[in-house]
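Hi F.,

I've been meaning to write this up properly since the lab meeting, where we talked about keeping a consistent format for the predictions we share between groups. The idea is simple: the sequence comes first, exactly as it goes in, then the structure tokens exactly as they come out, then a line or two of notes. No screenshots and no reformatting. I'm using this chain as the first example so we have something concrete to point to.
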Amino acid sequence: MNNLFSVTLESHHDESVRVPIMFGHAVKVYYKDVLDKYKDVLDELGFNPNNGLADLYKRIKKLPKEQRKAIEADIQKVYEKQADLAMVDSDKGITNLHVPNNVIIDASMPVVVATGTYVGMFKANCRILRLYSRSYICRYL
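Output, unedited:
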């Protein structure tokens, strides 16, 4: 069975604290193996899952090449094990979990619901859509 994992959170000014925390939780769950394995190193570097995978890549640039490559290789192993991850820009390798504000629900959900494809990238037999706002759920389901 093919699954596509995508997190889409709606952020209003009154939710500016809550949304990054929920996003960070999704990052922690999806990349659990890597984050657990390198916890001490990532803590020392100041990595915050609430800022997404882009923050991890930025911070590991400070590490020796061999250590950085090991972390990057383990991230690639996550993609082999976990459900396919929605891409924001597949040409650049930017995933749905890179930064908390990268996916715009108005642009992404109609394509997934109507065609089963996420921006032409992945044909899923099973779609699991996590929608935070009830206002969007009513619009697309």
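Notes:
The chain has one domain: 3-140.
The beta strands are 3-8, 84-85, 87-89, 94-95, 126-131.

If this format works for you, I'll send the rest the same way.

G.
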